[in-house]
Write a structure and sequence with these properties.
47 residues, mainly alpha, flat
Amino acid sequence: MINQHLQAAIIELQEFIDDRPDARQVRKALAVKLVYQGYKYELIPNL
């Protein structure tokens, strides 16, 4: 189970993603969110 701090960070990243029009910032935040959710870095495509 994801601890509360990590879950809060994921929620904050999703809010950041939802509010950003700049695709570069969104791609970076999405990559970080995926890593926080347990995805391996190698499995995240070049966002």
